Amino acid sequence: MSLRKLENRVIEDLQGDQMGFGLDGDAEPIEVSINQFYGIEINDFAVSVAKTALWIAEEQMMEATQEILLREFDFLPLKSNSNIREGNALRMDWGEVLPAERCSYVIGNPPFLGARNQSKEQKEDLVEVFHGAKNCGNVDYVAGWYMKAAEYVGPFPVRSAFVSTNSICQGEQVANIWKPISDLGVHIDFAHDTFRWASEASDQAHVFVVIVGFSKLDGDKCLFHHNGPDAAAVEQHPRSINAYLADAPSVFVWNRSKPLCDVPKIGIGSQPIDGGNYLFTELEKEGFLASEPTAARFFHPWLGSREFLHGETRWCLWLGNASVSDMAAMPCCQERANAVRDYRLSSKRRQTLKAAESPQHFGTEIIVKGSSVLVPKVSSERRRYIPLGFIGPETFCSDLVFLIPDATLYHFGVLHSQFHNAWMRTVAGRLKSDYRYSGGIVYNNFIWPDPTPEQRAAIESCAQGVLNAREAHPGATLADLYDPDKMPTDLLSAHKELDAAVEAAYDVDFNGDEEKIVAHLFKLYAEKAGEL
Questions:
Q1: In a designed cystine with 106, which of 160, 304, 476, 526 is the match (CB 3.0 to 4.6 A)?
Q2: pTM for the structure as a whole
Q3: CA proximity to 440, closest of 263, 309, 280, 255
Q4: Alpha helices in 173-297 (DSSP H)
């Protein structure tokens, strides 16, 4: 319908003030026809709906053309439209539906199914389409259409574009999906980065999507950038668009178990796997200690992302170093340990059953002896900086945060800078539109600066300035302090100074231009990882 609307505008411009169209005889002015459209649907009812929708659209646009030309066109009887085929698009040969040499555009809105929501048959579809490529069993189902289109076009001048979940251009999936596609000589021509797509359904479900156009053809690039999922698009014309939808070198960031640079390793917190028996609110802790005050030394502050960011108080009971005599003197604690053992024994998971043998310990236990930098796994996309913090060994953490043991003020400063946050914004995954930090993708692939002693000292001084600015606002949570609508001016100024100090350590002068920062970091990554 949209193509016919454009065609009607052309016809109207050509018509001008003339009463007739000015063509010889009864020449047909309409060039766009439903017979030029081909498609594949897996459901027989959807095939019928698609055919009917095409007929209705053609009839509506025919009426609009008649009004422009003051002429009648024969629409009835309905012409046969057998170009919509029923079948599994990932299993069919698209060339049998329409040979690629006759095709101009491939467009679609394939199904949105994450890797964990796919059936066995759908995973087999992806393995077949990607020919068993690395990690292809861990990609969104929509990725199959990208690979299928990339192979379908062959040497022909065909352009493709799909509406997709935004995860295909974020996090671990990017390399898994786009490396095999890139190997075929396909590149991105245009894109809309993440925006919120509202459904017309009654429950108004929302999904966060991207639109990506790709081909083997030359031409100018166009990126429609959204400053937030609800913001209007701003049109940009970068030199290139890589698979992260950034104007940067076309390299792929693979999941790594160790950092590329010489920095402390990153890990996660603990998983209690306790059925809730070891976690307490402040009130619950007070009630427990009223019954068993000797258990006080076994309680520790407990932090996950929410507790860290929003200042919520929670506690954990850790009995890992309680002796047999300690447990005998604390019946309430023994009761909790017994309940944890029973909870784990009810599981079918082998690791959980094994953990039942040590009920005084967490199911997965990470106890850091010294201080650590804490990084929340999920943080609002509205924040310019993911809030970080130092914690001591007395604080225990859940697996909803990352911990960097033995990290110094220098490490805190670089990680809290615009440079690191710009890298994170580009390569991290998302939970809806929120940032989902990762050790394997974001931290381990980040290229750190190589500062002089003076530059390192400057970063440490500015990092301390950030911490001092936070302390100047007692009672404010990190969520409050890093809300862009509430961020105190002294904290923002401290971060700007830190940004400048970190940028100087990279020996560049970008004046905070994030596009230049991202391009530079991709260049450094490519050199370090040996991709260029």
A1: 160
A2: 0.85
A3: 255
A4: 173-182, 282-291
The b/e string for 202-214 (b: 16+ C-beta within 10 A; e otherwise) is eeeeeebbbbbbb
Q: Which H/E stretch holds residue 478?
A: helix 478-481
The answer to whether 312 and 303 are in contact (CB under 8 A) is no
CA distances from 306 to 228, 269, 313 (A): 22, 14, 10
Residue 37 is predicted with a pLDDT of 85
Q: What is the pLDDT of residues 468-516, one digit of tens each?
A: 999 999 999 999 999 999 999 999 999 999 999 999 999 999 999 999 9
* DSSP 8-state secondary structure symbol assigned to residue 297: G
Contact between residue 495 and residue 466 where contact means Cβ atoms under 8 Å apart: yes
373, 353, 376: which is closest to 363 by C-alpha? 353
Q: What pLDDT, in 10s, does the model give residues 167-220?
A: 999 999 999 999 999 999 999 999 999 898 875 544 445 688 999 999 999 999
Place of tokens 């069993």: 137
Q: CA distances (Å), 377 to each of 78, 208, 228, 388, 424, in order?
A: 57, 19, 19, 11, 12
Report strand pairing: 434-436 vs 378-379. Answer: antiparallel
Measured between alpha carbons, how far is 247 from 188 in angstroms, rounded to an integer? 11
Q: What percent of the chain has pLDDT over 70?
A: 94
- Judge whether 159 and 217 are in contact, CB under 8 Å: yes
Tokens at residue 381, please? Answer: 């996309």
Q: Report the distance separating Cα 259 and Cα 261, nearest Å.
A: 5
453-471 and 489-505 helices, crossing angle to 10°:
170
Q: For residue 72, what are its two tokens?
A: 């009648």
Shortest CA distance to 9 belongs to which of 54, 75, 72, 61?
Answer: 61
- Torsion sign (Cα): 288, 289, 295, 301: positive
Strands, E assignment, 109-158: none
Contact predicate 268/366, CB 8 Å: yes
Separation between Cα atoms, residue 72 and residue 61, nearest integer Å: 12
Pairing of strands 396-397, 206-215: unpaired
pLDDT of residue 22: 46
The first and second tokens of residue 248, run together, are: 């940067």
Are the CB atoms for 252 and 191 separated by under 8 Å? no
Calpha distance 409→351 (Å, rounded) = 37
Rounded CA separation 151/374 (Å)? 44
Report how far apart, in Å, the C-alpha atoms of 449 and of each of 261, 444, 495, 508, 520 are: 9, 14, 18, 11, 12
* CA distances to 278, 294, 336, 521 from 333, in Å: 9, 10, 5, 51
**Helix (H) / strand (E) containing 300:** strand 299-303
Label the pairing between strands 187-198 and 222-226: parallel
E-assigned strands of 305-388?
Answer: 314-317, 372-376, 378-379
